[in-house]
Amino acid sequence: MRANEIPFTAPYVIIEGTYVVPDASAIRTIDDVDREGVRVAVGRGSAYDLYLARTIEHAQLVRFATGAEALQRFVRDGLEAAAGVKQPIVAFAAAHPELRVVPGKFMAIEQAVGVPKSRSDAATYVRAFVEEMKASGFVAASLAASGQAGATVAPASKCVSR
User: Fold this and answer.
1) What pTM, to 2 d.p., does this model score?
2) 148 and 80 in one domain?
3) What angle do CA 39, 54, 19 make, to 5 degrees?
């Protein structure tokens, strides 16, 4: 596990994975996706593909070169669901009124900063810096400026030392 080799800050942003389905689909919850006969389009090798490969027991993952291709082929090939990062999934569903986003999330990716283990002073500084950037609104403003306003800024860490 990387956390044993590299000290990480608390997360600064949380990226959620969710599903999009045809509006008429019987799939209503995240748990409804993992059923026999459900084909889920995913971007090959993405974090959500790797997560679903470990956790899906009954549904079939159908892999495509990219997340964008997975969304297009989900529609074109009539698959039952597509998985992906929440913001692109929501945007895709908004552009396709025949689709809807399944409420909730199947995973959360916590983005953090790591430093070499040998740099303990740097790790202490970076932890405090990340917390300051979250508290000041810098992370939220940066996400908005980069078109990721729907991403979630991680909550403040309870363990910050200076």
Assistant:
1) 0.80
2) no
3) 40
